[in-house]
Design a protein that fits this description.
By secondary structure, the chain is of the alpha/beta class. Helix content is 45%, strand content 19%. It has two domains: 5-124, Rossmann fold; 138-379, 3-Layer(aba) Sandwich (Rossmann fold).
Length: 382
Amino acid sequence: MPQNISVVIIDSDTDSINNIVKSIKNLGNDVSIEGTATSFESGHELIHRKRPMAVIMEVAEDVSLSIQYICQILSKFPQISIFATSTDKTSETILKVMRAGATEYLLRPVSETDLTFALQKLGRLWLVKTSPGEQVGNVISVFSPKGGVGVTTLSINLATSIYEITMKPTILIDLDLNAGDVTTFLNMKASYTVSDVTANISRLDKSFLQGVIQKHSSGISVLAEPKKVEEGISISAGEIRKVLGLLKTMYDYIIIDTETLLDRTTTAIEMSDMVLLVFVMSLPSITNIQRYLKFFENKGFGMDRIRLVANRYLKKGDIKVEDAQKALNRPIYWSIPNEYDTAVSCLNRGVPLNVGASKSELNQNIKELAKTITSSIKSGRY
């Protein structure tokens, strides 16, 4: 077992805490207990101060609330491994907790054997341990509630423009896990995909990821979409969280082309520094954005991270920017002109806009968007 595994325990039952503490102390100096708490609130504050490698936490009778707590921890501290403890043996609960991102599910009362095995396994699993000098990349998710509004086109050309401007390590991830087509847009043949990463989650480290990620001629790196539908279906939110957490230590900019399904997209959004919420100037599209803005607000997402992007905008269209802003009660962050034929031409040739249509208004517009985003990141004003 690796030395100096740090642990925080959150459990409403003091007898359970004492049992776990005793088991850990029997392991000697390999594991240190950074603190214990009998409520999530005090436990969360403890995690914030101590930044442990693992949290051993009780799944209470209110399973949904416990899952919410797990998600809260992992959204802020994706490097942490969660050991969930529960008396509930049902497969439904176990599946829900593991999908939320728990690394282990231990039955209560927690046996010393099970706990020791889990801690030994922790030593073999990938851990992102953030230190003051370690790189922490900026995650930008591009999302729309409905397909066909240009999310992939924007994701690709934003990534290539950011790299062109900054010349800093930039990766594009296709997290449209059931219908992704980034490699088609870029005329790439992927030897490995995100499903190869998640299928080997126990081997996950920087070296492994570097062997899976491919380089595009534009200079950006690409983590491709799954090749088969069934491969995408099996990928969990917890696995996505671990992959993104590690990528943040490897790249300055992580651009995510998201899917419309919410479970895994929610994870990406939770971990994003900025979310570009894309729509077109039509009544159905604006209505959908209204719904999702309300959803994000109800979920407690930082609404200051969400930026509205009007794609395929026509200055002489029926709906003006002012109309959309009034309907959505939020400013439009960016408007992208409607040059559909230009975008499709580049798609059919498998090249980004800065290669296939560098002088087009569309390319210049997205390049300005990239400049605006990178400037705000540099200044700390997202």
